[in-house]
């Protein structure tokens, strides 16, 4: 019986590598690995309809939005839809207490009213190519890892340079399977992207943190932008003369809705996953890294939420920041639960056992893989120690109080000047002034002081003495929180923009140089120096060693699984995930339906709770039942779930049906499946999608911006 159980566990584990619903697949390999199965699941188009270098295909309508989201083009005039949370930073940047687009929403009623977004880019892929051979050219036979890496990097530079065609394109080469494969990605980069519409946060963020990563969900997580190009339809910087971009392809929108079992495909830019890490690392994530980071973020969030609640200006200032902090904070909690429920560490151990047996049978154990495993043991012992320190510095200092981020900028300016490049200093000073201005715009001093005084002591109390500079420990031990604020924070010139600006713009290098004696800059420098000497070099070396060992281990897994489709970890490049519309059973006796409706929003309505305060206009529409064409059985559908393997970065991705028509916009995953970055569970992992008809309903009935629908192709 025991033996049977062990064998069936092994089987489940190997089969989970093959499950159709698991995986983020490379679009140019669909023909080889996936299309047959996709057809079996109901997909009606070809692999070329998804990705074709020579003809217009879906890939021409999928964009990398900003630094880490996906968006899709939905009209011949470059109209683009992504998530509300992806556009939030831009929506926030146009908002003030007088013009509060976060509370009121924003709708351009004509193209002239669309708002420019400095720094926002949209990338559209021209082509991708397997360049493994070219990248590894000249490395065969090299024994030394460093030498090999040098050759690889120089090959990559050459490939990128050639592909960029003198700056016409942005080209990057990224490793897959820990460097067992390399792909080249070539993009057009658009820099004139304008805000077209966004619902109020009471719709776009409905449910807030309480509902984030949860099902049932009722969030209208979408926003609209438009890509502009020059008169020749080429990417260009912002100009009034630019015109809406004419894409090679845009997504028609299905008004037919979804049924359980329907085929779904998510096409986007998943950010990062760790599907192949060994048991030791899973253990560190579950028992150390996630708990450490959650604990520190608990403190940050308490302080920030408290301030946001008290002051509407602070609520606007911290909207995007708090979103970022709380998003991972909550995901880490779900991840711990999911990995524990799956018994992930033991399942990984089982797989490692299977791998070892395979290696022994194939005569590769003694000479190759025995060392891989003993190396892992040694490296992870070190890694757990140093990554703890690194996590603490990251959470309490580098991403702690904003005053540290200003100190970072001043400190690097001072070093720049000290290094004797005075002639370039003026430019550098100007950039520093503007970037500090941006930090201060979204910072409230009273809140920041509290963060500073709360987080710094954590570094001292939770880390071994040798990891914190002596002087910092003395300071924290000498002063209580109030005094830390009075004697350090408030003695700093960093939050007084006028004074600081006067010093910086005086151009007096001596005066600027003296800023390094500012109490917070000085504190920052002590911490930075200590980190750079006592911590960073160790983390870097261990991470490099682990990566090199992972490359060998991964090569082994690939050999062991030869002939079976294997997907590589996400790395913010274009991928396809396919599955079907389905609900799930989160626990014994509970079944979740696959969709939610406006009725559920009314049920959650509670003006007392910020996250559930439904706008009056939406309530009026609900009561009048003026739902237009956007109904299922008399109710407006809001969100639905499907079994596509997604992660961060897939936010905003198009979700299409068997005909390739847009049925929704991906925005989240369900709580029970948040561990899918490390281990996927086909029973529990569901992605959450806003039904495109809810977005259209909001645009049309709620915002009165129905004219935008005229440029879309609605398939009834
Ligand atoms: N809401 C998620 C995010 O933070 C999307 C996901 O991870 O599924 O990006």
First and last CA, distance: 55 Å
By secondary-structure content and strand pairing, the structural class works out as: alpha+beta
Total helical elements? 26
Largest sheet entry: 11 strands, antiparallel
Assembly category = single chain
Share of helix, binned: 40-55%
Uncertain runs = 1-20
Radius of gyration: 26 Å
Can you tag this structure with a few keywords?
disordered N terminus; 716 residues; alpha+beta; Thrombin, subunit H
Architecture overview:
With 716 residues, the chain is α+β, with helices and mostly antiparallel strands. Among the domains are: 27-121 and 191-272 and 571-715, Thrombin, subunit H (Beta Barrel), CATH 2.40.10.120; 360-538, no CATH class. It is 48% helix and 15% strand. It is built from 26 helices and 22 strands. The strands form 4 sheets. Strands 1, 2, 3, 4, 5, 6, 7, 8, 9, 10 and 11 form an 11-stranded antiparallel beta sheet that branches. Strands 14-13-19-20-21-18-17 form a 7-stranded antiparallel beta sheet. Strands 12-22 form a two-stranded parallel sheet. Helix 16 (402-418) packs across helix 23 and helix 17 packs antiparallel against helix 21. The chain is globular. 44% of the residues are buried. The model is unreliable at 1-20 (pLDDT under 50). The structure holds aspartic acid.
Show the helix and strand layout:
Layout lengths: L1 H15 L13 H4 L1 H6 L6 H4 L11 E4 L3 E5 L5 E4 L1 H10 L7 H4 L1 E2 L7 E2 L5 E9 L1 H5 L8 H20 L5 E7 L4 E10 L1 E7 L2 H4 L3 H4 L11 E7 L13 E2 L8 E2 L8 E6 L10 H32 L1 H6 L1 H23 L2 H18 L3 H34 L3 H17 L3 H20 L3 H18 L7 H9 L2 H8 L8 H9 L3 H5 L5 H42 L14 E6 L3 E4 L2 E3 L2 E3 H7 L11 H9 L12 E6 L11 E3 L5 E8 L17 E5 H11 L11 E2 L1
Parallel strand pairs: 12-22
Antiparallel strand pairs: 1-2, 1-6, 2-3, 3-10, 4-9, 5-9, 6-8, 7-8, 9-10, 10-11, 13-14, 13-19, 15-16, 17-18, 18-21, 19-20, 20-21
Helix pairs in contact: 1-14, 11-13, 11-14, 11-15, 11-18, 14-15, 15-18, 15-23, 16-17, 16-23, 17-21, 18-20
């Amino acid at each position: 019986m025991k033996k049977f159980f062990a064998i069936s566990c092994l089987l489940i584990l190997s089969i989970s590598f093959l499950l159709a619903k698991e995986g983020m697949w490379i679009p140019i390999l669909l023909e080889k690995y996936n299309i047959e199965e996709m057809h079996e699941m109901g997909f009606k188009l070809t692999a070329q309809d998804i990705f074709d270098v020579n003809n217009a295909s879906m890939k021409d309508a999928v964009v990398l939005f900003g630094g880490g989201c996906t968006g899709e083009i939905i009209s011949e005039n470059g109209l683009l839809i992504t998530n509300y949370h992806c556009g939030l930073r831009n929506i926030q940047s146009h908002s003030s207490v007088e013009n509060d687009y976060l509370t009121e929403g924003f709708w351009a009623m004509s193209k002239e009213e669309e708002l420019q977004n400095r720094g926002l880019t949209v990338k559209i892929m021209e082509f991708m190519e397997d360049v493994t051979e070219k990248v590894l050219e000249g490395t065969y036979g090299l024994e030394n890892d460093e030498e090999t890496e040098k050759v690889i990097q120089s090959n990559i530079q050459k490939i990128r340079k050639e592909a960029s065609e003198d700056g016409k394109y942005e080209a990057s080469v990224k490793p897959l399977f820990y460097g067992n494969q390399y792909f080249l990605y070539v993009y057009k980069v658009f820099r004139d992207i304008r805000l077209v519409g966004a619902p109020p946060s009471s719709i776009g963020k409905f449910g807030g943190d309480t509902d984030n990563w949860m099902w049932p969900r009722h969030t209208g997580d979408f926003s609209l932008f438009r890509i502009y190009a020059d008169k020749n339809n080429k990417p260009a910087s912002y100009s009034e003369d630019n015109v809406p971009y004419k894409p090679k392809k845009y997504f028609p929108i299905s008004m037919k809705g979804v049924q359980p079992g329907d085929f779904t495909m998510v096409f986007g830019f998943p950010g990062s996953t760790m599907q192949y890490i060994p048991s030791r690392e899973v253990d560190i994530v579950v028992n150390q890294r996630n708990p450490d980071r959650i604990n520190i973020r608990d403190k940050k969030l308490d302080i920030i939420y408290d301030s946001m609640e008290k002051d509407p200006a602070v609520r606007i200032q911290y909207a995007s920041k708090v979103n970022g902090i709380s998003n991972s904070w909550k995901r880490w909690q779900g991840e711990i639960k999911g990995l524990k429920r799956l018994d992930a560490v033991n399942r990984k151990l089982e797989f490692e056992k299977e791998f070892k047996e395979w290696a022994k049978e194939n005569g590769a154990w003694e000479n190759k893989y025995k060392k891989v495993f003993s190396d892992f043991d040694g490296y992870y012992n070190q890694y757990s120690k140093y990554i703890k320190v690194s996590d603490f510095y990251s959470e309490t200092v580098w991403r702690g109080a904003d005053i540290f981020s200003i100190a970072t900028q001043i400190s690097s300016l001072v070093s720049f000047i000290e290094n004797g490049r005075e002639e370039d200093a003026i430019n550098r000073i100007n950039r520093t002034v503007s970037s500090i201005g941006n930090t201060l715009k979204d910072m409230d001093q009273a809140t920041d002081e509290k963060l500073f005084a709360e987080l710094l002591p954590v570094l001292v109390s939770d880390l071994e003495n040798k990891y914190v500079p002596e002087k910092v420990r003395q300071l924290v031990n000498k002063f209580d929180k109030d005094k830390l604020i009075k004697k350090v924070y408030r003695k700093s010139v960093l939050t007084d923009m006028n004074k600081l600006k006067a010093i910086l713009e005086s151009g007096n290098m001596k005066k600027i140089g003296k800023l390094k004696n500012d109490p917070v800059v000085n504190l920052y420098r002590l911490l930075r120096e200590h980190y750079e000497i006592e911590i960073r070099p160790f983390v870097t070396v261990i991470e490099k060693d682990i990566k090199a060992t992972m490359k060998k281990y991964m090569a082994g897994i690939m050999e062991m699984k030869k002939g079976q489709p294997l997907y590589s970890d996400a790395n913010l490049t274009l991928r396809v995930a396919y599955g079907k519309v389905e609900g799930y059973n989160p626990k014994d006796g509970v079944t979740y339906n696959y969709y939610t409706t406006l009725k559920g929003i009314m049920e959650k309505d509670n003006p007392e709770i910020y996250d559930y305060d439904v706008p009056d206009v939406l309530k009026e529409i609900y009561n009048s039942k003026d739902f237009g064409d956007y109904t299922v059985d008399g109710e407006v559908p809001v969100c639905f779930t499907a079994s596509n393997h997604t992660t961060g970065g897939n936010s905003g991705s198009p979700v299409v049906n068997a005909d390739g028509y847009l049925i929704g916009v991906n925005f989240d995953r369900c709580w029970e499946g948040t561990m899918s970055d490390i281990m996927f569970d086909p029973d529990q992992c569901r992605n959450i999608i806003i039904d495109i008809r809810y977005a259209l309903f909001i645009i049309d009935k709620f915002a009165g911006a129905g004219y935008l629908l005229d440029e879309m192709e609605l398939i009834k």
